[in-house]
Amino acid sequence: MKNNILATTPGIIFVGALIGVLAILLQKMGNPGNMGICVACFERDVAGGLGLHRAAIVQYLRPEIAGLVLGALAAAMATGEFRPRGGSSPIIRFVLGIIAAMGALVFLGCPWRAILRLAGGDANALFGLAGLCAGIFIGTLFFRQGYSLGASHRQSTLSGLIFPFVMLCILALYLLFPQVEGQAQSGPVFYSVKGPGSMHAPFLISLGVAFVIGMAAQKSRFCTVGALRDLFLFGSTHLFLGLFAMLAAAFVANLLTGGFHFGMENQPVAHTMSLWNFLGMVTAGLAFALAGGCPGRQLFMAGEGDGDAGLFALGMITGAALAHNLGTASSGTGIGQHGIAATLIGLAICLVIGFAHTRKV
Question: What's the CA gap between 63 and 76, in Å, rounded?
């Protein structure tokens, strides 16, 4: 980290602004509205592309997910920060990933998309961001009482490379079985022919932009959940300034490109059920906090060789598939049939995990 300018406060501000601008670029190049980069939504699309769920409108092997991981891997390798590790309550992290994805898909977005939705004028995002803050704040109450999932341990280089290899395999599937225009399946891979899954920037642009973000975020330690956690726990604004820069840059970019449309109605891939926008992100925010980072940060850590972060990401892919298979995911018309139950059960499980791993200090 010596002489790492991106780890400084000006550096984190630059990285946040970079992510905000590049996310709007991806929207202009074809990604869904207010969804330039959404880790939860894109992992849902990947799950659909692999056939783990059959919601036909959200199936696409988003190259952004692989790009974020591989960019972080490249940055970590280049500076000696690739450190394979794992063994810190892996099954619990996997479960937290499932819960985080299901909660986020009740709101319809991860913390990154909540910021992008607000930057695009979607007032529903205010309820999601409030819920995210509430969930993370609950997490800090556990942290003050000594919450820990235990220490991770050094593992083999091969172990640290497994998750990036999985990402390469997903890219290979995309290249080996590209979409045939108008067809919903190419070999074993599923593709949306309508809906959000059919909206995407060109492959190389998506992969390249995500790779750059992965490199920059790995060096800066950019994390939306960490920003709020540090603000609540220590009053530290270092990471929070990066989050604010992302919001401000995306807002300005939307204004300049005509992408800002304020209101609650008729927003892209959003619903107006405010209570469940809030509570879905309370559940997701608490799961992110207990796991140690936002979904983007989990991908960057997985690129650094953190197997537990990789398991959390796999949990999110699994949770996204379950959200559609079990009818808990929301749509533009409102939350899914079982979305209320999933939100409350997920929140209860997170509280049990928090109390079970807390020791009074």
Answer: 20
